[in-house]
Amino acid sequence: MSCEGGDGDDIPAEAYSLLHKIASQWTGIVNAQELVLKILRGSMTNRVYECHWSWDDGHCPKKVLVRIYGNSANLLFDRENEIITFERMSQLGHGPRLLGRFPNGRLEEFLDARTLSAKDLRDPDISQKIAIKLNEFHHLDIPGSSHPRLWERLRDWLEKSNKLCKPEIIQEFQLERLQKEISNLSNSISKPNERVGFCHNDLQYGNIMINERDGDITLIDYEYASYNPVAFDIANHFCEMMADYHTETPHLLDQKKYPDFAERQRFVKCYLKVSGQGDDCEVENLMNDIDHYVLASHIHWGLWGILSANVAEIDFDYLGYARERFKLYYQHDL
């Protein structure tokens, strides 16, 4: 076994046994025991590896993705619910297939597709494909409650942050006043008839893949997925256009890169058109809702950064990211 860009010491023996078993069932592998691991950068919750083997001539190489769960998992979301969602997505033909599970992770099908870059999100053709796929995603029938989870999650994360953080962090981020901020925001932007669907809730470029042959888009990584107002999901996607997690300062956001009115309108029109909607009034209403849910996105990922800073092992400035998010929150006008 060799590992490119990392030592692979966090991969347990159970995972290697599963990898060897999978490889032994494939024709053309030179030696199922001789695998090569390559760490994949960009994940901020898990450690992710690409695994491949040497193949005989004439056989198409196959790969497996190895996902090692991060320490923040149980603090931020329910892993068992995430696995149920993952398996349901696989049954519905969305995302990779589950190949095996071990105590602190799982093996997934390695998709024959390219992960998007920050620049790709601004490509009009790719953005249109994302809008279409997101509408499809929002209409999926996923087991469990269809009640929106957003506000419950924010209050849960705030409570955990107050318990885990040092007094200086609580003071810096004004956590003592955030409960009121969340309640006021919920009361002011939630609507009884708002569009609710099964939302990804983390639609950054690293969680979107494109098949270079046919242009198909796949949304991956459903750790934060739940039913929510669809305006929140789209607002979060727009916020992610300010980020580039593959720079020397991946925690910083470039406010100038937030999509302008025309770009947002084009996305929303394409999104609604999939459902046979999209008149001027419908477009305007959804765009207004999205503008409001940008505030919820900033609180969501600001609290995520604060909590992750307490437990995560990934090399990322979580508190710096939280500062970026809360700075934008307090700058934003409702």
Helices and strands, in order, run as EHEEEHHEEEHHHHEEEEHHHH
Secondary-structure content class:
alpha+beta
Distance between the termini: 54 Å
| Radius of gyration (Å) | 21 Å
Uncertain stretches? none
Task: Tell how many strands the DSSP assignment holds.
Answer: 11
Average residue pLDDT: 91
The share of residues in extended strands comes to 5-15%
Number of helices: 11
Strand order of the largest sheet: 1-2-3-4-6-5
Most strands sheet: 6 strands, mixed
* Shape, per Cα inertia axes: globular
- Helix % is 40-55%
Provide structural commentary.
With 334 residues, the protein is an alpha+beta fold. 45% of the residues lie in helices and 14% in strands. It has eleven helices and eleven strands. The protein has a six-stranded mixed β-sheet, with helices on both faces. A three-stranded antiparallel β-sheet has the order 7-9-10, with helices on one face. Strand 5 and strand 6 (105-109) form a beta hairpin. Helix 5 packs antiparallel against helix 7. The chain starts with a strand and ends with a helix.
